[in-house]
Amino acid sequence: MAVPPWKTAVAHYSRIIQSLSSKVCVGAILYRVVNEKITRSSRGIARKSDILGAETSRQESQVLAVGQTARVLVLLGTVLACLPVFKVDLGTVLSFCGMGGLAISLLSKGVFVNLIGSLTIYLTQPFTIGDWIQTVDGEVDGWVQSMGPYHTVVMRWDRRPLYIPNSRFMQVQIINANRMTNRRILLEIPVRLADLDKIDVVLEGIRDLITNHKDLDTEQHRLGHLRDITRYAAMIWVSCYTKGIKLKDFVSAREDILLGIKNIMFQNGMTFATTLEREFRRVDQTGRILSAQPGPPVGAPAEFAGTLPLGAPSEDEVLRRPQPLVAAQKQLLNTELQILKQKQEAIWVREKELKEAESSRQHGQERLRKSEEDLRERQGFIEQQTSLLDETLTMLAVQEEDLQKEEEEIDLKIDGLQSREDALDKVMRELRTKSIAAQSDELKDSEEDLQKE
Predict the structure, then answer these.
(1) How many Å apart are CA 240 and CA 265, to the nearest integer?
(2) How much is the pLDDT for 9?
(3) What b/e readout covers 340-371, taking b as 16+ CB neighbours within 10 angstroms?
(4) From 23-32, 204-213, 323-332, the region with the lowest mean pLDDT
(5) pLDDT surpassing 80 at residue 330
(6) CB 38 within 8 A of CB 67
(7) Considering the domain 13-121, what is its CATH architecture?
């Protein structure tokens, strides 16, 4: 008997659907397994800190690269496995893809270059999601938010996202700040030339400061030297590295170093060089002042050029001559300079006093907080002891009531025993009386018998 055609078609398509479903299910399971493995292997993006850290950054890069490669391989393998179900020759498809890919690459060169850039990023792992990256030209500075096949999103410091084509990363040098081990503190401190006789003591104090500071890395260099003596100031150069890489720790350590250097200089009677002193230093020793910003002299107008007498100096010579400074004006300028210096020193002293007061206030608040915590602990302990005493007193009262009841019962028993004892004494007396009477009767009978005999 011949099989109906529709049954043959149904059986054929059923086999196709069954084969296709099994392959798709296997591909979906593998894709799910890859995603689960990536989720468990990833540490996640650091939300609360400014950077992830070198080890976390490298691990996230490896997980991301392996995960993306595994996803692509699973999808590609699933598609290639499903093609024979539809009677499609894999060789023909691959050759067509090769020619089509060549044509597409010629038509869309930018997209292809960005895809190659994305693949390069995944393979070389210069950064990962959550890393703080910078470019040498300074155009890119922020945190990597996402990495796609075409572009990478970087969140800048002003919280505005920057979309960068992946091909750009193949053309610029990238700085991955997440993978740094230390942050550098680099300072150049200007000192007055008049204070050079005290520079040795100040340098020694600065070296002691950076050597004994708890937040500086002891494995890196900690240098403090007199680097240069210019026309207007001497430059102290300080270089050291912090232990932590978080921005908060770095700023705090840098502030401590700056305040420490300021205190060392003030303790030794030194101040910082300023531009105000530069301008006043241009006054020469003969009481004449020079221009603060020298420039080419300006000649007299043409209509007055012929009015000068013969043999008189030209207007250029007159303008080039330094003009005498009145002694009163010079004294006034010196007085104002001294007043400014005194005010500046007073401001620095006041700032130091305010910081000390703030520090003492913070210490006082810390002591008060600790005292409050101790009082709370003592209060809690006292309340606990009070509750224990109340429970003990309650138990003692109950025991006292029980003892009173037992005492009453014992008294009743004693009374009963006393009454019984009295009854026994009475019975004993009666028995003694009866026994004595019986004995007396017997004696009388025996006496009578004796008398009769």
Answers:
(1) 19
(2) 67
(3) eeeeeeeebeeeeeeeeeeeeeeeeeeeeeee
(4) 323-332
(5) no
(6) yes
(7) Orthogonal Bundle (1.10)
Tell me the C-alpha to C-alpha distance, in Å, between residue 127 and each of 62, 171, 184.
10, 15, 22
Look at residue 294 in the predicted model and tell me its pLDDT.
Answer: 40
User: Domain segments of the chain: what residues?
Assistant: 13-121, 126-178, 180-268
The CATH code for residues 180-268 is 3.30.70.100
Secondary structure of the chain in HEC code, one letter for each residue: CCCCHHHHHHHHHHHHHHHHHHHHHHHHHHHHHHHHHHHHHCCCCCCCCCCCCHHHHHHHHHHHHHHHHHHHHHHHHHHHHHHHHHCCCHHHHHHHHHHHHHHHHHHCHHHHHHHHHHHHHHHHCCCCCCCEEEECCCCCEEEEEEECCCEEEEEECCCCEEEEEHHHHHCCCEEEHHHCCCCEEEEEEEECHHHHHHHHHHHHHHHHHHHHCCCECCCCCCEEEEEEECCCCEEEEEEEEECCCCHHHHHHHHHHHHHHHHHHHHHCCCCECCHHHHHHHCCCCCCECCCCCCCCCCCCCHHHHHHCCCCCCCHHHHHHCCCECCHHHHHHHHHHHHHHHHHHHHHHHHHHHHHHHHHHHHHHHHHHHHHHHHHHHHHHHHHHHHHHHHHHHHHHHHHHHHHHHHHHHHHHHHHHHHHHHHHHHHHHHHHHHHHHHHHHHHHHHHHHHHHHC
The two domains 126-178 and 180-268 share their CATH topology (first three levels equal): no
CA dist 121 and 113 (Å) reads 12
Give the whole-number percent of the chain exceeding pLDDT 90: 21
Q: In which band, very low, low, confident or very high, does the pLDDT at 242 lie, cut at 50, 70 and 90?
A: very high
Any idea which residue has 């993006």 for tokens? Answer: 45
What pLDDT is recorded for position 283? 45
The answer to whether domain 126-178 has CATH 3.30.70.240 is no
Query: Contact at 8 Å (CB) between 183 and 132?
Result: no
Is residue 141's pLDDT more than 50? yes
